[in-house]
Task: structure prediction
Amino acid sequence: MTQRHSELRVLVAGPPHVQAEFRRKLADLHAAFLFVCRTSDLSQLVRNRELVHVVVLPTALQKVDWWALWNEICLLNPRPALLIYAHTASFQLWSSVLESGGYDVIVEPFSGEELQGAVLRAERSLEDESQDEFSDFLNE
Result:
């Protein structure tokens, strides 16, 4: 059974020290946080049909790990907004994220305010997308 939550639910992928940093930087959002280090952790969330609004995923993973996490994220329903964080961002990275269905790239180092703003914009993009789909349905 899919869980319904009224609060923002943010999934952060990364090692424990990154999770602690993100928890601190996002504390003012008063959101529910889910943290994963491995693909198997994310697989469990998918099996439990956890509702996730925004996924924050690093580019600094081995290619195999990154794609394994991406494949699991694609199984989340409804599909969350994907926010990528990186040490540097090129046009190729940014366009690849967008082409893959991601929302945006945020470049480290970033302040808590910058990260919170990016997460909230990603969440709003889901709301806008949902409204657009509903409007399209009504116009059919």
About this structure: Residues 9-139 form a domain with the Rossmann fold fold (CATH 3.40.50.2300). The first helix runs from residue 16 to 25. The radius of gyration is 15 Å. The CA atoms of residues 6 and 95 lie 31 Å apart.
